[in-house]
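Inverse folding, one chain.
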């Protein structure tokens, strides 16, 4: 059983004052360590300039139980911190996940070279691994990589992990800079217009990639999504997430990704990768209708689709600073045209009898702005894909949709549409209806409508 142990910050006091300040933490922490016995430990540690050796040594005594560890430090010589009083480094036989946050971790990865179970590595606002790290770290063990780059050369870091299966990249635009003569290095932002990279990095085992884009006005002329997609070849990719990175300032429209959708780059990417996408998530991203249609044509094996649009009353994208990208206009994905595009019967004549888009779609999850959402068009699309009869499904050339989740931001789904969806649950369709109200100083209200359970309860009371 895992134990979420603690998270603490070291105050910037003099040594004597510092020891007195943290003494109240020592006893409960020691008690937690004793009571947890041999349980694996999950630890988050925030370290400042002044570090208590007593506290660190207390943790190092249990290093053989560390399983999921996060270190956050910006001013410390980190390798010295994780060295025992006898000068030796501890072993980490249970360590599976390791996260570094900050700029103080040069030569730190090598300290964990004997962690035989280590498979997940996260580096946030850090630096590219040192030569010692590159030489000593068992990179072949790393199957999951989470990068929030500072001065990290992302493509080079990916190349270090030959068995990588999962990749997450955050705040992409802050770290593109063309290498002299190559145009294919990721590093610090440049004011120059970078050339398309010529080297395609092949990551053979990667099955899932998540890309979180931040594109403030001053960086809008650098299309980081295009640059990234043009660099990679991912033959095993099945799950893809692309989102605007709005976690820190969700109401700031200038943090919305403003680059053009990488339509041509995605087409070339899928052609050279030959991958089969079964899961696609698009979150708070502007994609024109024609580009979205082209993307769906490239992903005919899609089984699960998740789309989350912005609520414009919270994040007013009409106020995006027009600096380098004066032509930017945010286009919601979940438009009436989008819903009609997914409607099965609308494709028989329009596409000269070709199969509908995403014919294998079985699960759809939509979070839409209530001011722009067409409830009836959504219901019509769901009904068109509800084909419990195998003969009917075969005739249409689509799989029967199995699960539908809809969240309408700012209001509730129309009652007539909710009632119609409840009727479909009686035939086996899984339906979840959510609503989120926000505005002013309201904290928000979330309502979940488990239609299947509601029907079960009503039946049992009869």
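Residues assigned per position:
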């Amino acid at each position: 059983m895992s134990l979420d142990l603690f998270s603490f910050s070291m105050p910037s006091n003099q040594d004597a004052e510092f020891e007195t300040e943290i003494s109240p933490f020592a006893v409960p922490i020691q008690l937690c360590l004793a009571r947890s016995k041999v349980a694996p430990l999950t630890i988050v540690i925030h370290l400042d300039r002044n570090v208590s050796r007593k506290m660190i040594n207390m943790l190092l005594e249990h290093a053989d139980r560390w399983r999921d560890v996060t270190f956050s430090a910006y001013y410390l010589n980190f390798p010295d911190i994780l060295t025992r009083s006898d000068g030796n480094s501890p072993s980490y036989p249970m360590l599976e996940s390791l996260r570094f946050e900050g700029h103080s971790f040069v030569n730190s990865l090598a300290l964990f070279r004997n962690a035989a179970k280590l498979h997940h590595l996260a580096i946030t606002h850090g630096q590219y691994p040192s030569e010692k790290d590159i030489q000593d770290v068992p990179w072949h063990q790393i199957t999951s990589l989470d990068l929030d780059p500072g001065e990290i050369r992302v493509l080079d870091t990916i190349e270090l992990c030959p068995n990588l299966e999962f990749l997450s990249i955050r705040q992409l635009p802050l770290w593109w800079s063309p290498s002299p003569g190559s145009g294919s290095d990721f590093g610090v932002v440049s004011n120059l217009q970078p050339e398309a990279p010529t080297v395609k990095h092949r990551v053979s085992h990667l099955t899932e990639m998540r890309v979180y884009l931040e594109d403030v006005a001053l960086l809008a002329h650098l299309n980081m999504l295009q640059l990234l997609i043009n660099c990679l070849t991912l033959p095993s990719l099945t799950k893809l997430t692309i989102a605007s990175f709005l976690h820190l300032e969700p109401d700031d429209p200038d943090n919305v990704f403003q680059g053009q959708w990488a339509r041509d780059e995605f087409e070339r990417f899928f052609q050279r990768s030959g991958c089969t996408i079964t899961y696609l998530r698009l979150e708070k991203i502007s994609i024109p209708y024609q580009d979205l249609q082209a993307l769906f044509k490239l992903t005919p094996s899609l089984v699960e689709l998740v789309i989350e649009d912005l609520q414009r009353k919270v994040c007013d994208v009409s106020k995006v600073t027009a600096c380098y990208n004066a032509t930017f206009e945010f286009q919601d994905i979940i438009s009436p045209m989008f819903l009609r595009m997914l409607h099965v019967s609308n494709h028989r004549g329009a596409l000269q009898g070709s199969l509908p888009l995403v014919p294998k779609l079985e699960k759809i999850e939509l979070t839409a702005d209530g001011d722009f959402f067409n409830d009836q068009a959504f219901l019509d699309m769901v009904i068109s894909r509800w084909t419990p009869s195998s003969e009917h499904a075969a005739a249409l050339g689509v799989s029967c949709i199995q699960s539908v989740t809809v969240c309408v931001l700012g209001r509730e789904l129309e009652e007539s549409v909710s009632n119609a969806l409840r009727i479909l649950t009686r035939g086996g369709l899984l339906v979840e209806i959510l609503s989120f109200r926000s505005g002013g100083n309201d904290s928000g209200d979330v309502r979940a409508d488990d239609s299947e359970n509601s029907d079960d309860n009503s039946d049992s009371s009869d």
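Residues 338-462 form one domain. The chain has a mean pLDDT of 77.
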